[in-house]
Amino acid sequence: MSFPWAKEYTPANPVMKFLDEKLPLPRLVYNAVGAGYPVPRNLNYMWNFGVLAGFFLVLQIVTGVVLAMHYAADATVAFAKVEHIMRDVNWGWLMRYSHANGASFFFVVIYLHIFRGFYYSSYKAPREMVWLLGVVIFLLMMATAFMGYVLPWGQMSFWGAKVITGLFGAIPVVGEPLQVWLLGGFAPDDAALNRFFSLHFLLPFVIAGVVILHIWALHIPGSSNPTGVEVKSESDTVPFHPYYTAKDGFGLGVVLVLFAVMLFFLPNYLGHPDNYIEANPLSTPAHIVPEWYFWPFYAILRAFTMDFILPAKLWGVLAMFAAILIWFFLPWLDRSPVRSGHYRPLFRKFFWFGLIPVMAVLFYCGGAPAEEPYVMLSQLATAYYFLHFLVILPLVSSFEKPEPLPYSITEAVLGSDKKAVLGENTTPAT
Amino acid sequence: MIRPIAILVGLGFSIVVLLAFVTGAYTWATEETQPTAEHEFHIAPHAPEGGFAHDGPLGTWDVAQLQRGYQVYKEVCAACHSLKYVAFRDLAGLGYDEGQIKAEAASYQVPGIDPNTGEATFRPGLPTDYFPSPYPNAVAAAAANNNAIPPDLSLMTKARHHGPEYVYSLLTGYDAIPAELTQEFPDFETPTGLYFNQYFPNLNLAMAPPLTTDGQVTYAEGNPQPTIRQMSADVAAFLTWTAEPKMVERRQTGWPVLGFLIFATILAFFAKKQVWSSATPGRKDD
Ligand code: HEM
User: What is the CATH number of the domain that holds B41?
Assistant: First the structure.
């Protein structure tokens, strides 16, 4: 669907006309990311990250497929194969560093994309399905990245895999058999490495499929915008192409500059030196830490240090998974009729002075050793994290008086909208 | 219905984690943590005077230094440490020509098969061979080194934080136990077969000081004096190269790429301005 004023695709030449009649693929693209998709005219740069995430997904697939041509998932040679890629394969170092840093940039972009959603409540009706599919993508990405990190078979690969799969051992009764079943043995070895490679190759394509659903679901109501006021008329929108293709092009340029700096000058900055030591089941690293993008959830896992009815470890595992799974319920937990945090004074305070610093603390503590004061800090932050989403967010709208909303996007951008009717200015957007 | 459940779940998780916080904080406030010698007397690695030629985004290899470092590796470290990801052909990166590489390779004995009997034996190396391990297997390596296996050095400088500085500091860091340490930790000792070194995480390691006297390695005419510091810096530089022979090539590829991207991004910025200005007369911002 789209707005009634969306431009219709008219094939410019006979070839396109032929194609459009037999298989309307050009039409599909035109309506998805071309001039046929009307988009609110007031999007800010926080709306760039969806397209950027798509870029990094493609980059991961392209570099990953090339790496897979030279890699072998066999515990005796995997580490040496990665070194072979780094030393002997033409441009192998570029492929490998692009893939490793590409994963990090993918997560940076996705985190910004998700936090955009938190601030502007993009998860609210009518975009619940877009949000739910987004959370599915995030979970798939985490699984993919976790298994990818095992492939180079360094010390952190091995011990990270051991710790994370060990979490399943915390589940009562079925835990241990489940862990053995997942790994294909009692510790990560050939069986685990092979299945991780197989799934690491597969999942990105599953992600690509869910991304298509995500965009499909988005195009039914159309994009939201920083005011949270829904599109009312044609003057509220501009066609995606050329307006947002141009804006996304510039955003992509900026991110690629930063990516090139990391890739060519600091390619191991986000990695861990221990992963340049080949996996050794007999030697445990001093500190086992996952990749940086897992740190907030790792901090939550380790915050539960006390048995209370359930064993501490089980609490940690439940909390870690719950920390992401609760995002699925956000559309129904937050019942303020106003979307944008811009017009919600109380919500905005909890966002900037609660959620954001707490996420920063969780990030920091997840990468720090499990010592005091980091454990205490993660405990306080974890408590706030759950209170924020499960208690504050459902209740805050009862105490909050939203600020007046503009009548329309046009009014927000131009200062006035000819169509604005007196008295309608403060109607919340629903 | 979903909101009351959510509130209960939220309170549940936060109460449990806050209980853990209270007990943790109580223990932390009441129990004193014992300081450890490793914690108090470990020293962070530092660079040799003047740093390395390969440091920084514009750094390049100092080929003469890499050659000296290779000589130190070959004459000293190779007695205990392998270099298994480096092939003799890679020495072309140190400025050696084909003939020199062939001769270098042939100066090493690598495992082979007797062409007449099929028995396992040794043969002179070829450029396509990799640096051989000084020990037939890990058990032999451990047996010869007080139960510690000398690690492969190919990736050493990437496998430690501040790797090149760490290797340099470790090799030059075999000093006597400082008096303050013995004062503060009277129980601290270096077991026989281990050696005290404040750059090593637990202060005692199984490697005997490999570089003990100035001039241990004789450098060719025109090179700096082979002091312990000089040899240590040279071998640290060499091990930076073995860990990533493509490092300088990587940076040199990076500059033009970065230049192109910045140029393209500036163009994209003006393109974006142009596109937007034409279509939104009277727009407040941007
Ligand atoms: C969602 C997209 C993807 C993410 C987030 C991802 C993430 C990762 C990560 C974090 C690593 C470890 C890098 C390292 O430390 O060296 C890795 C390695 C690897 N990935 Fe991926 N990857 C993705 C897609 C793919 C695809 C599509 C393929 C192949 C078709 C692939 C093939 C490989 C291979 C062969 C390795 C091992 C080589 C190496 O470690 O450099 N990846 N991946």
Answer: 1.10.760.10
